[in-house]
Amino acid sequence: MPRHRAAVSAPADRPSRRSFLARSAVGTAAGLAALTRAGGVHAAGGRLRLAGIGVGGMGAADLGALASHPAVDVVALCDVDTQRLGAAGERHPAARRFADFRTMFRELADGIDAVHVSTPDHTHAAAAMTALDHGKHVYCQKPLTHDVFEARRLREAVAGTKLVTQMGTQIHSTTPYRTAVRAIRGGVIGRVREVHSWSNKTWGYDGPAPTPSPVPPTLDWNLWLGTAAERPYAEGHYHPGNWRRWCDFGCGTMGDMAIHILDPVWGSLDLTAPVAIESTSPLPPSASFGMRNQTRFTFPATPFTTERFELTWSDGGAMPDTTTWPLDAPAGGRLPLPDQGSMFIGEKGCLLLPHVAMPQLLPADTFAATALEPAPDGNHWHLFVDACLGGPPTTASFAYAGPLTEAVLLGTIANRFPGRPLTWAADTMMIPDHDAAAALLRRRYRSGFEVTRLA
Q: Which secondary-structure segment (H or E) carries 63?
């Protein structure tokens, strides 16, 4: 882990946020965008003033991990559920509490250096972009966004700025994934011909339409919906735990787990945008996700792959065919396939990377004398804080996370059109000759919840 460093001071002639906006002649939105390009807020006195947006569930875990850094002061908490907000407030009594992150920025923007965004997927981009427009460093849970368009816009928003960003793929910084990435890039199995990745999770729903029910008194349902279209609350279906199953709010198993499991694939092979995606999944429910998906991505070659490289994702009841895989165990029999993971198939052999455990080189007898030296472990949250305070840059920044998220979300789109190959024109953000698929690249935000740079 990088050593703690003192904060980087802003130049004396840099205007304050308030004076900058006062002098802006092109309106608040343009002023905020210009402030972001100027580099944003720097932590003062070697400390980072942190605000949490979404502080229950994974948000509570993110908040606790970030707050455990000795240089972090938690100054604000935001959640649409007063019960969750209250629990976080008990742990951080000095922090101001808000239900609406827009109100938080209006009232406290000058007192915040960084935020973490740990809300349901459909709110990630709106909250993260609002923070960036106020010049704040952002740690945002995975998947980075709900839509392909949002992922591209967040990546563009931080390009050329000094703002620190990190996607909340905490396993990215752990020893198993770092070890696998180093082994693949080091050529242990040669150039990689294909990768198969999978998860046994089933984030979908194919039952009767949810029955409307009273909104819990602790929940602001309007704010929870946020950018999404209005619909009645239904107990047990959305908040707090099942929103991933619904297209309006989550991204299914691919959005939940492919963003983790494909991370070391992406990082080790230097993948760029896919050129084609094809799903052989059953047709999913109209408002939810299928629970037996299989999706094949074709990518341009890189120095770490063969000329034609394909990545196949499987989830739920659809698992990869392992018939030809060298899974023979040294003591006899076949190695069990982990419930989640990846198999890299290279010119010299294979690497099996469970989620989350150390990688294995295969065939076992071929690599009996080859030991993989474990890479150093890292604290994903503390690395973000260190970077905000002038330390080494993060390795899961929006520049990295944006393209990875785009690819995963293109897979969720392909799953809605099984048997129909999709071509992806990354430069123009178009899916040519498929209007229905192209329409899913972005949502129209609900009136009153628009964000300027996502409009």
A: helix 58-67
Closest to 381 measured CA to CA, from 15, 63, 26: 63
**pTM of the full structure:** 0.90
What CA–CA distance (Å, rounded) separates 42 from 49? 10
Confirm if 443 and 146 have CB atoms less than 8 A apart. Answer: yes
**Token representation of residue 440:** 């899913």
Instruction: Give CA separation, 74 vs 53, 65, 70, 118, in Å.
Output: 12, 12, 11, 15
Asked if 61 contacts 88 with a C-beta cutoff of 8 angstroms, the reply is no
> 269-294 pLDDT, tens per residue?
999 999 999 999 999 999 999 999 99
C-alpha span between 367 and 349 (Å, rounded): 9
Instruction: Supply 433's token pair.
Output: 């000759």
State both tokens at 226.
């946020």
What's the pLDDT score for residue 111? Answer: 98
Q: Count Cβ atoms below 10 Å from residue 80 Cβ, excluding itself.
A: 26
Domains of the chain by residue range: 17-172+382-398+448-454
Looking at the DSSP assignment, which residues form a beta bridge with residue 316? 292
Fold of 17-172+382-398+448-454: Rossmann fold (3.40.50)
Give the phi and the psi of residue 97 in degrees, each rounded to 5: -115, 140
Tokens of 307: 């000329």
DSSP string of 265-308? HHHHHT----SEEEE-SPPPPSSB--SEEEEEEEE---TTEEEE
